[in-house]
UniProtKB/TrEMBL annotation:
Biological function: Involved in DNA repair and RecF pathway recombination.
NCBIfam families assigned: reco (TIGR00613)
Protein's organism: Ginsengibacter hankyongi
Gene name for this UniProt entry: recO
Keyword list, A-Z: DNA damage, DNA recombination, DNA repair
Gene3D superfamilies according to UniProt: Nucleic acid-binding proteins
Official protein name in the record: DNA repair protein RecO
Length: 243
């Protein structure tokens, strides 16, 4: 049966001489793998450009629950980026978001709310001001956690001013374990947790070291709670690019 759905491209690997296998997070079916024949050619009709990481597509697919590999009948842009594919910093943030999402998506389960959040996040990043882009990875990582039952508790106070990375909440130093953020970093992180829309991120001024520490803390938080999460390959690039 043929279904129409939106999808966000997560990863593409070469297959054979001219084909690819694309991991796509779809609105209807969750994460799925699609074999796409004949896209790696020199033809002017080649569709390889559709399968860049973070691309948001509108696709018609053949879907069979019993198969691990599905097929795409038709595809077109659902949203054509203005900046993400050409701006080095925005592209690096998008690749971080894609990697984080892919590490969290373990099963091909439908989650329309998660899809819509991710879709909007990529579109917001595409049009974001530079001050917003710098803090965007932190915003995405904290918001994404909620969809996997890993909500970070915003309970910061003068007494609870150390962020406990393994527990995902703020505590006093006497109760903090060996994995916590210092008070100055914890304060800034607590402010970021209050952000409801990306446009608000420009009001929070962080230096490079604080941003790096928070992102590393979030990586550790996901490692504690997501099986086989592993180190993020895109994070060192972000540390260099985000001033």
């Amino acid at each position: 049966m043929i279904h129409a759905t939106k999808g966000i491209v997560l990863r593409t690997i070469k297959y054979g001489e001219t084909s690819v296998i694309a991991a796509i997070f779809t609105e209807l079916f969750g994460i799925q793998s699609y074999i796409v024949n004949g896209v790696r050619t020199q033809s002017k009709n080649s569709k390889a450009h559709f399968f860049q990481s973070s691309s948001i597509l509108e696709i018609q697919v053949y879907h069979n629950e019993l198969k691990n590999l599905q097929r795409i009948k038709e595809l077109k842009w659902n949203y054509l980026y203005k900046n993400i594919l050409s701006d080095v910093t925005k592209n690096s943030v998008a690749l971080y978001m894609v990697e984080l999402l892919q590490k969290c998506l373990k099963q091909p389960e439908t989650n329309a709310d998660l899809f819509h959040f991710c879709e909007d996040a990529f579109m917001q990043l595409d049009i974001a001001e530079n001050e917003v882009v710098a803090n965007f990875p932190i915003f995405f990582a904290t918001q994404l956690a909620q969809f996997f039952g890993l909500s970070i508790q915003d309970n910061y106070s003068d007494e609870r001013n150390y962020f406990n990375v393994s527990e995902g909440n703020f505590t006093n130093k006497s109760l903090a374990n060996d994995n916590f953020l210092e008070t100055d970093v914890s304060y800034h992180f607590s402010q970021l947790l209050k952000v409801l829309h990306p446009s608000e991120l420009k009001e929070i001024k962080l230096n490079k070291n604080i941003r790096k520490t928070i992102l590393s803390g979030l990586e550790n938080y996901y490692m504690f709670h997501i099986a086989d999460f592993g180190a993020m390959k895109t994070l060192p690039v972000l540390h260099e690019l985000l001033g």
